[in-house]
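Sequence in, structure out. Go.
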Amino acid sequence: MTRAPDAGRSARAPAPPLAVAALLGGYLVWSAAFVALYALHGLACAFVAGDSVGLRAALGAVWLAHVAAGVALLSWLWRHACDVGEGTTRFVAQVAVTLAATGIVATAWTGLPLLLTRACEPPPRPEARSAHAVAPVAADPRAPWNASSAAGSTGRQPAEGAMP
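Output:
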């Protein structure tokens, strides 16, 4: 008895690369926005003193460009999801649309601090930092972990296995 060549294989085919890219697309846009915003912010704050309007505008433009890319991806995926048939392909398309929508929300959330905070906060001055410094705690001479009090006030040696 001869079996058909495909009889032993699973009915599921591996996902094509386009489907994988569609599923990851929204979060790839978010990841690119995250890396770009934080890298540009760090570099700009290293070379620009204070809170610059140009810096905030540049960071805002990068952020809005990524949000627009996410919206464009969502729009394309939405049109594609409406055109596919039934079954697994339709399910993958619907999941891709959902992930792209959540990727837009994540991208918007990542850039939200641009609107709410200053771009570059100068570091605190040394005198301002020392006002909040905690004074060192004096060592208790009777503490068993204090090496200078190993003999203690009684002159006895610590017990075997005790910390020096």
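Check: Residues 17-118 form one domain. Confidence is low (pLDDT under 50) at residues 6-11.
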